[in-house]
Amino acid sequence: MVDYHLHTPRCCHAEGTPEEYLAEAERKGLREIGFADHFPLGLLDYIPRAQVTMNSDELEGYIGQIEALKGYSAQVDIKTGIEVDYLPGTEDKLADLLKDYRFDYVIGSIHFMEDWDFTHPVYADSYRERDLNKLYQTYFKLVWDLCRSGLFDIIGHIDVIKKFGYRPVSDLEPYWTETARVLKETDTCLELNTAGRDAPVNEFYPHKRLLEKCFQRGVPVTMGSDAHGPVQVGRYFKEAAELLKTTGYKELAVFEKRVKRSVSF
Ligand code: ZN
Ligand code: FE
Ligand code: FE
Ligand code: ZN
Fold first, then answer.
1. Which residues, chain by chain, have CB under 5 Å from ion ligand 2?
2. Of 14, 42, 190, 207, which residue is most buried, by most CB within 10 angstroms?
3. Rg of the chain, C-alpha, whole Å
4. pLDDT digits (tens, 9 = 90+) for 125-148
């Protein structure tokens, strides 16, 4: 199995050294891991209320540290990824920045709507004041725009808007249908992100129904624990692999220098 979503303490809300994450991956028998720490928001001229990414001057050091870890393990392949916030309007700047770095893959994630970090527990009360139907509509438009930007190899925790258990009364089926279509059309890889099992929603991202639609469309999938500490590496991966298999998936997408290929699992 492959865990492509590991953080480092540089983002200020994770703990443990990359070596400790690697040791846990070896213990759990993973064949491949990838670090995907939070890309510095400062480089996109965005300063959130709480610091949730590495500083701009830490990016080089981060890449160097992960590159140095490659070949360190006989058992586990290591990749250098990054998790970048999709912020509408920053596409050109980001395209320029990404050209300067040789990542193995780039995960695009949505954590912000306007100024609201809706994935941050401290600001979760704000869901109560929102029209959830409209909120989901806005969120999924961002998901489609993220894919259409063509900047990202993988979309991270695709339905993270459900994280705190707030759901609209409207039927989400049309969102799942359109999302699977857009992923296929834009050749964006889906991430089965297991972190949601430890969030109030207590579900993987994405919803089972979206995963099914993605499989039917032929959308490639990868796995990520979104570990912010060594013990979280590969969390719930047995359950996740079984879910993928019952859905029909026989292969996982892996990346090297932003070129995708498939491996059986
Ligand atoms: Zn994080
Ligand atoms: Fe994230
Ligand atoms: Fe993450
Ligand atoms: Zn994440």
1. 109
2. 190
3. 17
4. 999 999 999 999 999 999 999 999
